[in-house]
Specification:
This protein has about 220 residues and is α+β, with helices and mostly antiparallel strands. The protein has 2 domains: about 45 residues; about 160 residues, no CATH class. Strands 2-3-4-5-10-9-8-7 form an 8-stranded antiparallel barrel. It is globular and about 45 Å long.
Length: about 220
């Protein structure tokens, strides 16, 4: 073996030894990190931080309550009332909003599992009974999505009792636009609404002080 060959062999040996030390250090650091995490600590959803950042900047829609202010597509609304629904282990909320001109809309907030925000407009003159697999409303065709029965609690001015039940049928158009039918208590009258899905960036929340909930209920004229 000449001098050059011996030098290359020695250099290769040093590189292999250095790589072995690096692997050992990485393994040790990983083991320490695992040991530092308490047993049973849930692994954080890597995508959840995106929602957390949006909530920190724009307010958390999940915590909306009567008395809060909401800006949707540059229009400001006050939260008049809130309905919180429960069907088994599943829950969602609907908030009655009105603007400075008295126009009323509903904002639904649901995690399925991603956060879904839908702005609903009532269709009081529509006389359609839900149930068929497909139906047409205001010139648009919808297909049946889901239906069920839930309980609710009411806060603020919603026009409903503090607690009760609701039957619902949800439909969806080819472009994803939702249509909803709701009948509260023993009523045979279906309340119909069409929805617009909102991007998270279109909703800005100004929460008011805790305790701003209006405990009264009553029909909104």
């Amino acid at each position: 073996m000449n001098g050059a060959t011996a030098y290359l062999v020695a250099a290769a040996g040093l590189l292999i030894a250095a790589a072995g030390v690096l692997v050992a250090v990485v393994a040790l650091r990983t083991a320490r990190k695992r040991a530092a995490r308490p047993a049973g600590t849930p692994v954080r959803d890597p995508f959840r931080s995106v929602d957390d950042d949006a909530d920190a900047l724009r307010g958390d829609p999940r915590t909306l309550k009567p008395g809060d202010l909401v800006e949707i597509r540059h229009t400001s609304y006050g939260v008049r009332g809130t309905l919180r629904f429960r069907e088994g282990a599943w829950g969602w909320a609907e908030h009655l909003l009105d603007d400075a001109h008295g126009s009323k809309v509903w904002l639904s907030v649901e995690e399925d599992p991603d956060l879904e925000l839908v702005l609903w407009t009532a269709l009081p003159d529509i006389d359609v009974t839900p149930g068929p697999a497909e139906l047409e409303v205001a010139g648009r065709r919808y297909r049946r999505d889901e239906s069920g029965r839930a309980t609710f609690t009411s806060a603020g001015s919603t026009g409903l009792d503090p607690t009760g039940t609701v039957r619902y049928h949800d439909y969806v158009a080819a472009d994803g636009s939702p249509l909803s039918f709701e009948a509260y208590g023993d009523s045979e009258r279906w309340e119909v609404g069409t929805g617009e899905r909102l991007h998270r960036a279109e909703v800005l929340i100004y929460p008011q002080a805790t305790g701003a909930d209006d405990p009264t209920t009553g029909r909104i004229g």
